[in-house]
Amino acid sequence: APEILLETPYERALALQLLRFQEALEPVAEDYKPNAITSYLWDLAKTYTAFNVNCNVLKAETEALRQSRLLLCDLTARVIQKGLSLLGIRTVERM
Q1: pTM
Q2: CATH code (residue 81)
Q3: Do 54 and 8 form a contact (C-beta atoms < 8 A)?
Q4: CA distances in angstroms from 46 to 3, 33, 52, 87, listed in the order given
Q5: Are 36 and 94 within 8 A, CB to CB?
Q6: How far is residue 26 from each of residues 13, 22, 48, 65, 75, measured CA to CA in Å?
Q7: How many whole angstroms separate alpha carbon 6 and alpha carbon 14?
Q8: Is residue 94 part of a domain?
Q9: Is residue 95 predicted with pLDDT exceeding 70?
Q10: Is residue 3 in a domain?
């Protein structure tokens, strides 16, 4: 399995944001506040955009870094899909 390399502040910020997903779900379960998911997903999308603009994924300097960045992209897509699913919003597989 590829290892996640966190060489830039953008990679680190995205990884930390992904790790906060479970934390973002707590107010939903405890206080019935689904807006916590929407706020989290908005922040995740902004963090991913900064990562995507500043970190070249497909043309990364090394193959290991490329694989790491692809994994961060995949994890982001999975978390967004799960968050939207929890809100009752269906997503498409591909665009």
Answers
A1: 0.91
A2: 1.10.730.10
A3: yes
A4: 24, 21, 10, 19
A5: no
A6: 21, 7, 22, 33, 20
A7: 9
A8: no
A9: no
A10: no
Residue 59 has pLDDT above 80, yes or no: yes
Domain count, the chain: 1
User: DSSP secondary structure string, 41-84?
Assistant: HHHHHHHHHHHHHHS-STT-SSHHHHHHHHHHHHHHHHHHHHHH
The answer to whether residue 95 is domain-embedded is: no
Q: List the domain range (segments joined by +) for residue 51.
A: 9-86
**Per-residue pLDDT at 2 exceeds 80:** no
Q: What is the pLDDT of residues 10-53, one digit of tens each?
A: 999 999 999 999 999 998 888 888 899 999 999 999 999 999 99
